[in-house]
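Hi L.,

You mentioned the student needs an example of a multi-chain input paired with its predicted structure. This one should do, with 1144 residues in total across all chains.
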Amino acid sequence: MRLRALGVVVGLCGACLAGGPVAAQGQPATPIPPQMPPAAAQPTQEDHPTLVLPEPSPRWIYVLEPVFPYLVASKMWIFDGDDLSVKGMVNGGYLPNAVMSHDRSRFWLTETYWSRGSRGVRTDVVTAFDTKTLDPVGEVVLPKGRFLVVPKKHNATLTSDGRYLLSFNMDPAFSLSVVDVKEMKYLGELDTQGCSLAFPTGNTSVASLCPDGRFLHLTFDSAGRVTKTELGEPFFDSEKDPVFEHAAIHRPSKQGYFVSYDGWVYPVQLDGMPKVGTRWKLQGAGDEEWRPGGWQLAAFHAASNRLFVAMHKGGPWTHKQAGDEVWVYDVRSRQRLQRIPLAHHSPTIAVSQDEKPLLFALTETAILQVYDAVTYEKKTERSGIGISPWLLYTFGE
Amino acid sequence: MRLRALGVVVGLCGACLAGGPVAAQGQPATPIPPQMPPAAAQPTQEDHPTLVLPEPSPRWIYVLEPVFPYLVASKMWIFDGDDLSVKGMVNGGYLPNAVMSHDRSRFWLTETYWSRGSRGVRTDVVTAFDTKTLDPVGEVVLPKGRFLVVPKKHNATLTSDGRYLLSFNMDPAFSLSVVDVKEMKYLGELDTQGCSLAFPTGNTSVASLCPDGRFLHLTFDSAGRVTKTELGEPFFDSEKDPVFEHAAIHRPSKQGYFVSYDGWVYPVQLDGMPKVGTRWKLQGAGDEEWRPGGWQLAAFHAASNRLFVAMHKGGPWTHKQAGDEVWVYDVRSRQRLQRIPLAHHSPTIAVSQDEKPLLFALTETAILQVYDAVTYEKKTERSGIGISPWLLYTFGE
Amino acid sequence: MILDAFDRMMESAARRVAQRSSRRGILARLGTMLVGGAVLPLLPVDKTGAKLAHANEFAKTAQTTDPTKCNYWRHCSSDGYLCSCCGGTVNVCPPGSYASPTSWIGTCINPDDGQAYLIAYQDCCGKDSCGLCFCLGTEGEMPSYRPELNNDIVWCFGAPSMVYHCSSQVLIGKA
Amino acid sequence: MILDAFDRMMESAARRVAQRSSRRGILARLGTMLVGGAVLPLLPVDKTGAKLAHANEFAKTAQTTDPTKCNYWRHCSSDGYLCSCCGGTVNVCPPGSYASPTSWIGTCINPDDGQAYLIAYQDCCGKDSCGLCFCLGTEGEMPSYRPELNNDIVWCFGAPSMVYHCSSQVLIGKA
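Structure written out for the whole complex:
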C-alpha cells in the first residue's frame, strides 16, 4: 500500500470499523475479504491514494440528508462554506442525527439499521467518524433504540466536556441513552419522565423540554444513572404558543434562544438547571404579518451576540413554512439589526462561529445558499445537494 | 388482529421472514418485538387491515429501480398496465435482480446487503416475495456472493420447471449460484469458465454467453454440480459487432432473440444446447442512420411472434442511447410491421404476454409509457416512477 | 422500569377507552400514554374550540371523493405519503405493510354533513417510504415534545416494524 | 476450485506485467484475468486501430484543465460519478473511500500533445454513490460478457468494500 502520494496521506482503515479499544464495544471489525489476490493489482504510472482532510474549518458546513423517500440511504455532505466545494461525505442509517465534537476530531451519527435494508433485525448505533479520514472509527450499540422522527438537531447532544453523548429515545417511553464517547461504551438510559430532546447543561447533566412547557434537568453519574432530578416551572404556554424544538444553542457559551410559534424569544442559560430570562418579541410595529417558521429556523453567533431567525408572511399554524427572509437581532439590545431577503426561501439556516461568519440557508429544493453574515450580502449558492437535505451543522456551534 | 375487513384479507406476516421450512435456510425469522403492549391499541370505528392482491395479471408491470445514487435503497414498483395505478411495491438491496415465477405465486430478488447500510458485513441473498401479500416469505443466503453491476435482466433466471434459480456471480471469478427455490436451499456454484449471464434451457440446464461470442451450456444435478459441459461455436463477432446482453427471451416457448450493436438479429432456440438460427437485419434500405440501443432494448411477444426493438438515429458506439421509436417485426417473415414513435425516448421496453398485449416504454426521466401493442396507439403514461427506474418485468415472459 | 410503568398505564387507559370511546377519553388516554412517567401532571386535553377552528379552515376547500388528493377531507392534519396512492386506501394498508395501532389524532370536518370527526393518523409500516402523494397538514401541529400532537414522528409503535411506509387516515368517530 | 486457478493465473499475469508494462501486456493480462478458466482461448487483445478511432472522436472536443467536466480528456470512456467532484481528484479517492486495484481500461488522447494514453478506470469504493458529475462514455464499450471492456460493472474487486462511490481515471502510461 502506498503511504504517501501527492502530499496526501493514505487512510488505512477502509470500510473497517477501527482497531483499538473502540471496536470492542461495537460491531466486530469484520474486514471484508478482498476478492482479488494482491498480485492482481493493476500497475499504474500514478499512485491512487485516498485524500485525508485537514482539521475541519469552522467555516465548513455539514449537511445532513435523510433522503426522502429513500430513508435507509441517508448521507452527510461536507462543503467548504466559502465556495461550497465538496470536502467529502459519509453515509448514515435511518433518520440519523449528528453530533459534532468540541475538538473537531470527531462527529457522530446516531443511526438505525435493519439487517435487510428496510426489514429484518433492527440495530441502533452511535457511529464515530474521524473528521480527517471520514472513516467510521468506532461504534456503540444503543440497546434500547432511539427516537425515530424526521431529523431534529436536539435529539442528540454532547456534554460540555465532550465525554458523554446523549441520544433521545422514545419507544414510546421517554429516555436519554448515555454513551461514553471517550471509551465508546453504552452506559444506560436516563428516564426523562415524558420530557423530550437533549440540551447540554454541563459535564454530567442535560435538560429536556416537557409537554407543559418546563425544563426537566437531570444530573447523572459515570455509570449512566440519574443522581439528581430538577423540574422547572413552565416558561411558555405549550397550548397557545409552543416554542420550536430548533432552539439556537451555542454549546461553548451555554446560551440558548428558544423561539415560539408567535415570535417570542426565550433566552435560556444552559449552565446547570436552565435559567430562563425575560422573553422578547421578534416582530415590532408593522411586522404583524411576519412569523418565524421552517425547520432549523434559528441560529446564534456567539462572538457577536446575534440571533438569526427565518421569517415568512403567514397566519397561525404556518410554523413549518420556509423563511423568505432572515432577520438578525442583537440579543443584548433585543434590536433587529437587519432583514436579509433570501434568494430562495429556506426552512433551515445556520451560522458559522468564526469572527467573520457565514450564514447558510438551505432550501426544500436542495439549494444551499451562503451569505456573508457581516455584510449580509449573498456570496454563493449550490444546487443539487442530494434530493432532500435537512439539517445544517458546523464545528464550534 | 382483524382477519377480514372490507373484502380484503389481512396478511399475518408483517416484517417477518416466513415460517415453515423456508426459514430454516435463511436469516432467522426474528420478529421485531412490538414496542407497545397490545392493550394500547387505538380503538377506531373502521378496521385498518392490509390489502392482499389478487393473482397478478399478465398485464401488470413490475419496475425495478436500483435508485441511483442511493443504491442501498432499491425498489420494485408494481403497476396495473392498463391505467398505471399502483398495486404495491417492495424494497430491495444493492443492485438487485428480479426473477418472476412461472406460476405467478412468487417473484424473487437477488440482493446484496451490508450490516450498516453501505458498510460492515456483506450478505448476498435470494429473497422470495409472495405476489399477493408482497411479504418476504423466504430467504436463501448466497455464500459466494453475486455479480454487482448496473442491473441487467439476464443476470438471474429460473429453470423451465421453476425449480432452480440461477444467479450469475463474478467476484471476479465466473460462476452461477444454484438455488432450489422449492426447498429454499442453496446448492452450489457452476463454473462458467469465463462466460456470463444465465439463459434458461431446460429443467436442469442453463446457457451463458462467452467473451468470444459462443454459448456455454451447463447441465447440473440436484446437488448443484455440473454433469455436462457443452461449448458452441462463435455465432457473432464479439470484437466487431457484439450482441446486447438484453436479448428478448420468452421462457415458456424457449425462444430467444439476440440483437447486435449493428442491428443483426440472432434467433436462438433455448431448448438444451442453444441452437442459433440464420441471422437477419433490423434495418432495411433507407434505415442506415438507425440503430438499436438503450438498456432493456428488445421484447418478444410469443403468441403473435413479434419482436419489438428500441431504435434511435446514431453512429457507432451509441449502443446505450435511448430509443426514439420502437420497431416491430414478424420474426417468421422477418418483416417490419410497424414503427412506433415514442412520446418520450426510452432505453427500456417490455411487452405483456396476453392476447391483446401492452407495450411498455420506460424513460431515463422516470416516465413509464403504455402503448397498445395491437393498434400501436399510445394508451397512457405516468411520471415520477421514483428517480431511476431501470428494468421491466411481466409474468408470462 | 419505565416500560413496566408504561405498560400498566396503557392497560388501564385502554380499559377506560373501551368503556367510553369519547373524544375527551381518547385525548386523556393519549396524555396518559405519552407522558409516561409519574412526575408530570396530565396535560390539559380538551381543546375542542381551537382544533375545530383549524378543521373549519381546511374544510373550506376540502372534498370527499378523491382520497389521493391532499384536500380530501380526512387529510386535514396528515403528514407524509398517502396510503391511498401507494396501493392502499385511507384505512387499508398497501400490500406487505402493516398498520400501527398508535397514532396522533386530528379533528376534521366532513363537508358533506358539516360534522367534525376524529381521525387516527396511524402509519402503515414495514417498508421504506412509498414516496407518492406527499401531503403536509400543520394546523394544530405541535413540536415533538408534545408527541401526541406531532406529525413528524414515525407512528409505527406497536407495528411489526418501525419503518415508515405511508400515512393512513382512519375514522375514530364523531368528535 | 475456481479461485485457486484464478489466483495462480493472476500471480503469473502480474509477474508478466511487472516485467513489461506495455499496453499489449496489460490487455493480455486482462484477457487472462477475466476469462478465468481453462476452456476458452485468450481473447484477441490488440485493438489499437479501433480504440484510437474512438479516442480521436472524443479528443476533438476534449480539454485538459477541468477534470470536473465530462469532456476532460481522461474521461473518454468513464462511466459514473467523477471522483474529482466528490472530494477527490482523477487519481485520489475522496476521504473515506478506497481505490480498487482493478479496472477496465480505456485509451484516451491528450489533446495537448496528441498522444494516446491508457487510463485505468479504477473505482473508489466503500461508500454509496457520490451522486455528483455523472458522465457516461460508451466509445469502445462492450457488454458485460466482455467484462474487461464493460463500464457497468462495480470495479471494486480487491478494494476493502464492493460498494461503488465514484469513478477515477488513473494514468497507466502511453498507449
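You could point out the following to them. Confidence is low (pLDDT under 50) at residues 1-34 of chain A. The first helix of chain A runs from residue 22 to 25.

Best wishes,
N.
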